[in-house]
Design brief:
By secondary structure, the protein is mainly α. The protein has helices spanning 13-30, 37-41, 51-70, 95-115, 139-165, 169-176, and strands at residues 122-124, 136-138. It contains 6 helices and 2 strands.
């Protein structure tokens, strides 16, 4: 555990789950602290992943799950042909712009989750070979999935950042808090 997730108010399951999602978002956001656009876009490991691409990917994935839960069309929906574009910044996209977009998605996620009548409410899964036919999941499942997905990529971000300049997660927490490294 790199940062402490505050205990929820008694019975505030939504708050607890949202806090754990936010903790993992923070790990990815901190991974780009002090980097140039070029450093954030670099791929210093054998992986195809970059820090800026990870930010774009997790922001778009969170938006996708939010839109599924809201049962609304996703304005950033990827197709098989555009899938790879979800892992790299293109055109006039920048790290600050992508972080701002992600912050707006995170705010909308929290507002939506706080507004649903119950975390037991469900929504349909999209057709995909890895999902059961006519499958449904709860709002709780969605939040747990976002924690898992974001945490997985926070780990990727840790490795990429350490490969760039040796700064680990604890160094970046100190840098974020003004303690320097």
């Amino acid at each position: 555990m790199v940062t402490h997730v505050p205990a929820e108010a008694h019975g505030d399951e939504r708050g607890a789950l949202l806090s754990f999602v936010e903790e993992q978002r923070g790990g990815i956001r901190r991974a780009v602290l002090g980097l140039t656009e070029e450093q954030a876009a670099s791929r210093p490991t054998a992986s195809e992943l970059s820090l800026s691409g990870l930010i774009k990917h997790v922001a778009e994935v969170e938006l996708q799950w939010l839109r599924l839960a809201q049962q609304r069309p996703n304005e950033k929906q990827r197709t098989r042909d555009t899938w790879a574009e979800g892992f790299r910044l293109a055109g006039d996209e920048t790290v600050p712009g992508m972080l701002e977009f992600w912050a707006s998605v995170a705010k909308e996620t929290e507002e939506f989750i706080r507004s649903v009548p119950s975390l037991d409410d469900t929504f349909p899964l999209p057709p995909a070979p890895w999902f059961p036919k006519d499958g449904r999941v709860s709002m709780r499942w969605m939040l747990l999935h976002l924690i898992r997905e974001t945490a997985r990529h926070a780990g990727h971000a840790d490795i990429i950042r350490e490969s760039l300049d040796g700064k680990g997660a604890f160094d970046l927490v100190a840098l974020e808090q003004g303690g320097g490294v």
